[in-house]
Write a structure and sequence with these properties.
Helix Hairpins; six-stranded antiparallel β-sheet; 4 domains; flat; Beta-Lactamase; about 600 residues
Length: about 600
Amino acid sequence: MTTWITHRATILAFSLLALLAVAGGVWRFGYGQALDQLARRGEADLALAADRLTAQLQRYQELAVLMAEHPTLHSVAMGEGDSEEARLLLLEAADKTAALDIVYAAADGRIIVSAQGGFPGTDRLNGTPYFERALHGALGAHHAVDERYNRRAFYFASPSFGADGRVSAVLVVIVDIENVEENWRGDRPAVFFVDESGEVFISNRSELLFWQRRGADVGLVPPNGFAPTFRQYYRAGHELWRLDWGPYLPQRGMHVFQSLPVIGMRGETIVDVTPALRLAWLQAAVVAAAVMVFGLLLWQAFERRRVLAIANTELEERVNERTYALSQTNIALRREITEREEAEAALKRAQDDLVQAGKLSALGQMSAGISHELNQPLMAIQSFAENGERFLERGNHHKAGENLGRITQMATRMARIIRNLRAFARNENEPMGKVDLIGVISQAVELTEPRLRQESVALIWQPAFQPAQIFAIGGEVRLGQVFVNLINNAVDAMADVDRRKITIEVENGARLSVILRDTGPGIAQPDRIFDPFYSTKTVGSSEGMGLGLSISYGLVQSFGGNIRGINAPDGGAVFTVELDYWEKDEVS
């Protein structure tokens, strides 16, 4: 007995170790894959932020180059022009470009005129790095905290050449960095730009401004006070940070950086790795649960075989020792075991038959809908063909031609139905790209049209009142699946109401918005409708497992969009799908 207990304990311990090893391996692999995806997304976000920043700064650089040779400024530099006229010219340029100030200075550093006024002739720019570089005939650039305005500023200095080819004056455009940051402050993820001295000068997180990287340290420390918690480590070839830098920064993040020699800085971002950890733990938990279930089934099978083997051994020993009555008992026991096995086999066959019946029922419903959609044009083709034959016999070629044209229309309609079904059924592996949103919604409406008629649901979708084509970023088949799921869910929700109507609209705003309204009872728990396996339908019914909206949420998120559901004030549910335009807005 003690040996048997020890044997079982050894097997159990080994099974647990194997389970932990498998789950750990799945977690490690899944975490690495998720980190690879986060790294690609972080690099793309950082590149977008860097391009946006450099584009905005280059606009002011071009302004400095273009205005440096303005005749009005030349005249003032020579002492012949009107200083007030030159100041108004610089002020107009500063107002139109949102520049902090525009200064025109002589070669000796003396300020001749400034857009914001001040005291020309008293302040001097000589000795500043951007001004000295401009004196050498090159474009000067520098960043610092402007003492006059107490604001972070970027300076662009462009030389103005005199008749002798030497630099006679310098035009300096002063850029307000806060105005540049205004358009993307608070965006995800956290992005900051570090200069050559290791100081954070530009960021979409104001709490990181002026933090410094000291010496060979990787992390940042604030200019004042103690250094917060920071630790650097690597996972799957990616640099990860554990930090406590404030409520708007992740506690665990991936560090991604990119050099920006154009502006003399280095762009860096911290991408939150919490979704990757959550996904890795979910994958490990699913695999561990599957392995555990398999192990329990295998353990139960071995235990059953062991118990049966022991019972058979005892029965065989008793048969040899006991009387005919005990033999009859043994026979009865065997008969009971046989009947039980037969009953289990019959139950399994009945379960298989039920599963097969469910499959055949679903296939029958699908076939009925397809047959109904194709049968009408087939009957119409037959009728037009017979009429056309009679018209040909009578010599009425005009009428026969009309019937042939209608046959072509019916065939085109059948081809469109089959094409939509095939497009919806195929497995799309293509990456996201340019998608005709109006066409995708129209295809989804055509696919669900048989069920809408069957359930007496009125669907209001008028693409004729929309633009001919609206292009969004996404996948055609996956986006079509989202709208089919939303329409089907709306039909299910209106099963017990008398007034059944679905309205689909497209709004053009900052983002594309597709709004789907129904006249159902509304959403019982709006904050849970996108959770997996959440459903208001009867448990165990054939109407769904509560995965439709969860899958739709994941698909829209993969396009970079958003989906939300709320209750309308006058009743019913309203679902909004937000997508990005294909033509991305350029920051001017």
